[in-house]
């Protein structure tokens, strides 16, 4: 898109004509991750100051949809997948396979640009972490989290998510 930007700008700051022009001129890629895995990663990175995962989750739930951090806010509210037609949706846990395909489609040498990713190890680790962290939550917290992320769970194929059980 031809308009020059001097600062980070949200799409909502443009008028409809500019939005259509920008979205039509870019290849749009959306990276998605199981919302429960996003919560775990945020907690482990220390972005939540709570002493336990359960209290961190309660803080997230108490913050509500409008006051929540982008680190754990539902993706559909951040990326608007129902309004924006993304060219690619890349699922965390399948990064190597999907990024390789995406780079080839863009005409770039996929092998030399990708770090060594072992998707199966990542999936196994998050499965184990999910089991441990999920067991810390009360039945009510589990139900509230599933409701908080219901649109993400409906929009993306997180079939093995603990929140969709």
TrEMBL record:
It is found in: Golgi apparatus membrane. The gene is Chst8_0. It comes from Origma solitaria. It comes from the Eukaryota. Its main location: Golgi. Its EC number is 2.8.2.-. GO terms for cellular component: Golgi membrane. Signal peptide: none annotated. Belongs to the sulfotransferase 2 family. Pfam families: Sulfotransfer_2 (PF03567). It is a single-pass type II membrane protein. This is Carbohydrate sulfotransferase. Keywords: Carbohydrate metabolism, Glycoprotein, Golgi apparatus, Membrane, Signal-anchor, Transferase, Transmembrane, Transmembrane helix.
């Amino acid at each position: 898109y031809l308009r020059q930007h001097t600062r980070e700008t949200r799409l909502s700051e443009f008028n409809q004509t500019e939005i259509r022009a920008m979205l039509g001129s870019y290849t749009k890629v959306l990276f998605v991750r199981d919302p429960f895995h996003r919560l775990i990663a945020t907690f482990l990175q220390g972005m939540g100051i709570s002493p336990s995962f359960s209290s961190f989750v309660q803080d997230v739930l108490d913050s509500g949809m409008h006051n929540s951090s982008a680190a754990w806010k539902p993706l559909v509210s951040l990326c608007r997948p129902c309004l924006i037609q993304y060219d690619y949706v890349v699922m965390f846990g399948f990064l190597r396979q999907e990024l390789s395909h995406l780079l080839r489609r863009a005409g770039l040498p996929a092998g030399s640009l990708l770090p060594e990713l072992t998707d199966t190890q990542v999936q196994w680790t998050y499965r184990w972490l999910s089991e441990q962290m999920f067991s810390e939550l009360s039945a009510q917290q589990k139900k509230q989290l599933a409701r908080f992320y219901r649109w993400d769970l409906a929009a993306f194929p997180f079939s093995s998510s603990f929140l969709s059980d």
